[in-house]
Amino acid sequence: MEEEKQLSGEESLQLITTMLQKAKGGFHEKGTSAILWGSVVAIAGLVSFAELYWDFSIRFDIWIIVLAAIVPQIFISIKESRERKARSYDGAYLSAIWTVYGISMFALMFYVNIMPSATQRILTAFGTEWFSKNLRTGELTPLEPYVVGRSSIFLILFSIPTLTTGMATRFKPMIIGSLLCYGFFVISCFVINTYDMLLLALAGIFNWLIPGIILRRRYLKGKCANV
Amino acid sequence: MFKELDPILHSQLRLAVMSLLIGVKEAEFTFIKEKTNATAGNLSVQIQKLKDAGYIEVGKQFKDNYPLTTCKITPKGIDAFENYVKDLQQYLQVGKQ
């Protein structure tokens, strides 16, 4: 591009339009994080469902892989940050939304894990205990406190950043995936915990894995076109 | 009667740089160079002129032991760009009449 070339009015407008389009086209989401989290949630959900449905145990909590996925995610984030040559306004806002989502997810996991023992301690402090009564036999069995419908809360939370991103970037697979996720939330309100696990797995697949694969294919296609 | 177009912006490379920066939060020198197809020397000179005019902010830091220059449009730069586009539209309308 020449240094001091004087432009006509039409040329100036044409140049502005071209550069705005170039700036817009400079951002390609690779879909790596979406594929990672989609796979992890899908695997954990399907294994949990299988354990409950066919009544067996793999002897450890499969959901631990969700925590383990933080390690590769950190490496992915560092790599993407190093490769990024420009930051868009949309990217900055969406990044903030996903960060808040990540914090909220771990806050919810903390809540779900800490609430039963915290509730038990409070009950003990007041000298009380919860019981479950069998209405047919009248038998009373001690009931350990738990968070009712926790999968439903997770499903709502899963949808929020995905729908926001999908709407902001006009990326239909994410919009469809997150709307399906809201559908799974509604279903989860009426089914037992076993099927909640299946719904969580489906949410991982439709909410992140499929949109992630589509983004990845688009990115690789774009990369090939630029060679 | 229409206003004279801003001479700082009414040059091919500087206008290209400003048009790029108006669409992003911030951009590295290499990104601007890649998108404008300008030479490093020429681009450095034009970026300095935009900086001197107060239209952009230039940050210098190190990334993996290599110098990294980032550019960001300033509020004054945004105003100047918007005024330039308005003047340009006026100029083109006068030309059509």
Morphology call of chain B: elongated
Secondary structure: number of strands of chain B: 3
Q: Evaluate the radius of gyration of chain A.
A: 24 Å
Helix content of chain A: over 70%
Structure description:
The complex is a heterodimer of chains A (227) and B (97). Chain A starts with 8 loop residues before the first helix and ends with a helix. The mean pLDDT of chain A is 89. A two-stranded antiparallel sheet of chain A has the order 2-3. The radius of gyration of chain A is 24 Å and the shape is elongated. Chain A contains 8 helices and 3 strands; from the N terminus they run ααααβαββααα. In chain A, helix 6 runs antiparallel to helix 7, helix 6 packs parallel to helix 8 and helix 7 packs antiparallel against helix 8. Helix content of chain A is 73%, strand content 4%. Chain B has helices at residues 12-22, 29-36, 40-52, 75-96; strands at 26-28, 56-63, 66-73. Chain B has a 3-stranded antiparallel sheet. The A-B interface holds A 1-7, 9-10, 12-13, 15-16, 18-20, 22-24, 26, 82, 85-89, 91-92 and B 5, 10-13, 15-16, 19-28, 30-31, 34-38, 42, 45-46, 63-64, 85, 88, 91-92, 95. Strand 1 (86-87) of chain A pairs antiparallel with strand 1 (26-28) of chain B.
